Amino acid sequence: MGMTMTQKILANGAGLEKVEAGQLIMAKLNLVLGNDITSPVAIHEMEKFTSQGVFNKDKIALVPDHFVPNKDIKSAEHCKCVREFAKKNDITNYFEVGEMGIEHALLPEKGLTVPGDVIIGADSHTCTYGAVGAFSTGVGSTDMAAGMATGEAWFKVPSAIKFNLTGKPAKWISGKDIILHIIGLIGVDGALYRSMEFVGDGIQYLSMDDRFTIANMAIEAGGKNGIFPVDDKTIAYLKEHTTREYKVFEADADAVYDEEYTIELDKLKPTVSFPHLPENTHTIDEVGDIKIDQVVIGSCTNGRLDDMRIAADILKGRHVAKGMRCIVIPATQKIYLQCMEEGLLKTFIEAGCVVSTPTCGPCLGGYMGILAEGERCVSTTNRNFVGRMGHIKSEIYLASPAVAAASAITGKISGPEEL
Amino acid sequence: MKAEGRVFKYGDNVDTDVIIPARYLNSSDPKELATHCMEDIDKDFVNKVQQGDIIVADKNFGCGSSREHAPIAIKAAGVSCVIAETFARIFYRNSINIGLPILECPEAAAAIKDGDTVEVDFDSGVITDKTTGQSFKGQPFPEFMQEIIKAEGLINYINKRK
């Protein structure tokens, strides 16, 4: 019985020839990640350790991104705690405001995540790095603390679901539509405790940014990780972003999967998740007339350059609806700069959008776009739970950058074809 | 190890945003987090919960964010145990790591009602609804998990083993 791609990476990380689903293993970590919300709890836990210090100052990434630039005094105290810890332990990959970005857009861009890595992060969307063929998964602060101290973590080897992506997606269909469709199909616990392995001839049509979006939302189906095979596009991306050596793993031909799905990319339509669960998906043609108050384009899910380009393409020469707030948040400083150089910022501002420095801000109801009672938002973020972006009686509709931009113009949930 | 308390019953997919909304995550103080526990799904929870009470829920409890603040808030609010049909994986891991006992038991999750008095025996995995007299067999905790819970968390457990 062969191993899945995930199982092979975990076996390698644990120094074992072979692992199987359900087995408990201890694996070496290539990277341990934390942000301004989860790291202070981890740092506090670290203080309880009888032996102080971190296992490797180069293999820890600390990215204040959720409530920065500091939204209030308490957040400032949290960031201060992270900053001081980074300084005390001489952490190489601490990213201050001004050079930071949303963690899951930033780390691949900085070349810190490569194929074959075993990565844990105290943030649920750590699964994003599966896009480059790494095993990466979200954990809590205590696991982060233990990881920072020991450089190891225990895992239960997951079984997997195989998603065979076939065909070429139509013009406005992006990674977001694909993953929302999949979550709609299997539900928010459809991949609970398991890997989501994406394969098939359709992958060649997906940009790296599409793949980051898809892997990013594996957690929204309950998945332990989402992972893509390494192909020419991955290798070109790595060449541009990293000098780290890496090892490519492939699933065995006789790997066993719990379930297999075929997703015909050429048949997909723009897809929207209705409140209050990502699995409540509707295709754009069955949405109906839903008026909205706000649009958010950004986040670790959809704040990358491709996303900005798609949104700008739709907003160019147009204007957001009267009374609409459209908030655009490029995910990293580099993406922000690229937006400026390509003239996308001008397009956004002329269209009546507000453009923000990188932050998770509104995605988790932190700041920069909180909703009032009864308000509705179309958002390119990843969760539409009750109260996620503000008042418990507000509503979030998850969609692609194309749908979000089109909706900002019409003032109701709209596909780009409607313009 | 045993727990006994009154039950607060919830449905499917109770996410970490309703367990502890992000607007309170500018604090990491367990006592402060506890005062907002379950606020967006059950406003009265913090006024009614007593030391030792038990949360029972249906599937995928604790889905969403990896915030450890969620099990921390539940534990600091006085809850002695969470029973569910299934748990989201990060929440499961976090709960064990901070020493909050949690049990998967679909039968108990389906039968136990809000307000019932329930007893949980962690060694045997037996859950008894004292209100109805029904008894359910949950998964007993593996020994190392019991040790982590007794040590009140993973870090203390690691320290003790050295």
What does this structure look like?
The complex is a heterodimer of chains A (419) and B (162). With 419 residues, chain A is of the alpha/beta class. Chain A folds into two domains: 5-263, Aconitase, domain 3 (2-Layer Sandwich), CATH 3.30.499.10; 271-418, Aconitase, domain 3. Chain A contains 13 helices and 18 strands. Chain A has helices at 5-14, 39-46, 73-88, 103-109, 141-150, 175-186, 208-216, 232-241, 299-302, 305-315, 333-341, 344-350, 401-410; strands spanning 24-28, 31-35, 60-63, 93-94, 118-121, 135-138, 152-156, 160-166, 195-199, 225-227, 259-264, 271-273, 281-283, 294-297, 325-328, 354-355, 376-379, 395-398. Chain A has a five-stranded parallel β-sheet with strand order 4-3-2-5-6. In chain A, α10 (305-315) packs across α12 (344-350). Chain B contains eight helices and seven strands; from the N terminus they run βαααβαβαβαβββαα. Chain B is of the alpha/beta class. Chain B has a seven-stranded mixed β-sheet with strand order 4-3-2-1-5-6-7. Chain B is globular, with a radius of gyration of 15 Å. In chain B, β3, α5 and β4 (102-104) form a beta-alpha-beta unit. Chain B has helices at 16-19, 30-34, 45-48, 69-76, 89-98, 106-111, 143-150, 154-161, and strands at 2-9, 54-57, 81-84, 102-104, 117-121, 126-129, 135-137. Helix content of chain B is 33%, strand content 19%. Chain A binds chain B through residues 37-38, 40-41, 44-45, 48-51, 66-67, 71-72, 74-75, 78, 121-124, 126, 138-143, 145-146, 150, 188-189, 192-193, 219, 222, 224, 277, 364-366, 383, 385-388, 392, and chain B through 13, 15, 17-18, 21-23, 25-28, 40-41, 59-60, 63-69, 71-72, 86, 88-90, 93-94, 97-98, 153-156, 158-159, 162.
